[in-house]
Amino acid sequence: MGLYEFLLRADFGLAKPTGPLFGGMTLTAAATQTTPVTAEGTIVGTIQYMSPEQIEGKEVDGRSDIFSLGAVLYEMLTGQKAFQGKSQLSVASAILEKEPPPISSIKPMTPATLDHAIRRCLAKDPEDRWQAARDLALELNWIGESGSQAGAPVISERGGRTRREWFAWGIAAIATAFATTLAVGLVLRLRKEEPRVIRTSILPPENARFAPVGVSGGPAAISPDGNLLVIPARNDAGEGLLWVRSLDSLTARPLQGTQEASYPFWSPDSRFVGFFADGKLKKVEASGGPVQPLCDAVDGRGGTWNKEGIIVFTPYITAGLFRVADSGGTPLAVTKLDESRAETSHRWPYFLPDGRHFLYFARGKASGIYLGSVDSQQTKLILRSEAQAAYSPSGGHLVWWREGSLLAQSFNATRMELSGSAVPVAEHVLFSESQSVAIFSISQNGIMVVQNGGTLNADQLSWVDRSGKPVGKVPIGQANLAHVRISPDGQKIAVTSSDPAGFAKADVWLFDLARGVHTRFTFSQSARDAVWSPDGNRVAYASKTAKGTGLFVKSATAASKEELLLDSAEVKRPWSWSGDGRFLAYMQQDVQLTKDKFDIWILPMSGDRKPFAFLQSDYEKDAPVFSPNGRWIAYSSEESGAAEIYVASFPDGVTKLQVSNHGGFSPVWRRDGKELFYLSMGGQLMTVGVANEGSGLRLEAPESLFLMGFSLSRGGTPLFQRQPFDVSPKGDRFAVTSFAAVKAEPLTLVMNWDAELK
């Protein structure tokens, strides 16, 4: 066989494998295949010419091609393959463990220097081979020009070299040219194939902003094929939608019917987007079209979709994982919370390539990434973690968040095991502690989308000025903070600290700003919603009782027992104490009603303390706040179809004025009554100037102060459960939860992100 014909037929695998040679095939299949050509779906390249590192699935470079060249030259000189066997498995074993017979033992007239040059090509360790094709070319050129250094050449009777030696020199010359060509080819190929890491910023859709995480919205998600990006965002009117952007386009388009959608995820063919909205798991085509509800999912926390049409998802925040067909149906449990690990939630599932196993995050005392299966409820711990993980088949890496960074580590998706060391691939990644989710997404072909911005949580109070600039922190020292209330003199702050999984366990804590001391104020594990008395000496709050919910009051300045103000079966939430100390405004939900709506009630703080309704209706109302002079109550109401801020005269409620013009919730008065603050549906902190005019009020037009980053709850209902801010007595600064204070940065798109690992 001539050299040209040989090179045409040879297929010695210059492509880099992504895993061990026999990782995806059985030993039986390997043992029975005898043909030397590439087998479709199993091996890339002809095994007889593969290097040891290729067979073992290790990282390869140009020295692997030098090994292949050595095998070719050996066969050209000897007429037999350097590594032989009856099956691919035995050939692979020979390459890994055996040395080929010396060329001189088969062709005695071969120059020793040529034998040495080729044997160096076939060294098992890449460090022992020629380190570059140019080095081999120089060596072979020297052999061809100077002849064998092992002894004098054999002269024929006619005074010339023998035919066999001429053949050896010819091989050396051909090999020299071949090696030189290979060296040039390798350089060009490496230059062509060496991927470059490319980073670019992705801005929010036009006239919109990225939606916050943990309320509605969630992380943007890149499609499996890396062509599309689905982005949860809010338009200028505060309406949350999913937007789809093609990476070859500069604009994004909204997906109609995805109002207040959260935590989107892709179908494996990149055609559909799954998401949660209105208490349902839904899907919609990425190109647009009707939205299809699949099943109930009250408060979903992540989903994943395999090629067999199975969706694994979290239906609510304190559940295990369930599976449902992508055509809809009744969900079936696939994981159960482990009481021995005090697990409170399974969330953020992610299918592995086999479509049967998936990764998921288990929240509890032993939080971490676990392995689950649609075929069994058996689970396996992969690693300890504080957030979700994803698998990248393009490089075979597991990617997860730890202490502000994204880490990547080699992961065998067949054995389901990690190997090697974790390497940082992104820094300062946005992380929602309350949801245990890091803001990143990866495609199947080496594209990553990540959002920077620090840690998003409710475990820290911060002071910000009227421009939103941080001006200090309040080291309250407790977790999952809500319902921020500054005392009338501005010297103390009351907060509710609750279980991260919800309000199942909660208590009120007080923080003394002057002394820097925080103390636990209640001990019922069911107390919340602190309200200061006008003189700052007492605090009212709600707590569970045998009947249902009770309203209590307790001294904030001295040790004393709590006093029960009102006890009944209805759910109650205190919200404001009138400036003259005579009334307590609270929200009440009638347990006899099937609809989940609160009304506004008033509790007299003296006399018979018989409560009376201030505002009752079939629509949602919340957050009633007395004006400092006690003549008005500001509140949020959905009577117009969307939540808006209103003020109504107290106690008759005859006069009513609308304050906001594009939605709002959580109103707060400045202590002198000249300003009213609230949050817009888009998360802006708004201010409205107020002036008393006789028996009425004059309201100025709302103005935006800064973006809080806090927005709606699921389904568009105002998030009254977490009063995320309060204003200082002078109105010059605000105490906000850090959940609301963290500002998310633009998305970063990283192409070929795993190239840096190679």
Describe this structure in words.
The chain is mainly β. It has three domains: 3-193, Transferase(Phosphotransferase), domain 1 (Orthogonal Bundle), CATH 1.10.510; 198-454 and 744-757, YVTN repeat-like/Quinoprotein amine dehydrogenase (Methylamine Dehydrogenase, Chain H); 461-741, Neuraminidase, CATH 2.120.10.30. Helix content is 14%, strand content 37%. Strands 2, 3, 4, 5 and 6 form a five-stranded antiparallel beta sheet that branches. Strands 46, 47, 48, 49 and 50 form a five-stranded antiparallel beta sheet that branches. A four-stranded antiparallel beta sheet has the order 1-53-26-25, with no helix packed on it. Helix 4 crosses helix 7, helix 4 (62-78) packs antiparallel against helix 9 (163-193) and helix 7 runs antiparallel to helix 8 (133-146). The radius of gyration is 35 Å and the shape is elongated.
- Estimate nothing, just give the exact number of structural domains: 3
User: How many helical elements?
Assistant: 10
CATH architecture descriptor text of the largest domain:
6 Propeller
Euclidean distance between termini CA atoms: 38 Å
Mean pLDDT: 82
Number of strands: 53
CA gyration radius, whole angstroms:
35 Å
Low-pLDDT stretches are 1-44, 148-161, 186-192, 711-721
Shape: elongated
Q: CATH homologous superfamily name of the largest domain? A: TolB, C-terminal domain
CATH topology of the largest domain: the name is Neuraminidase
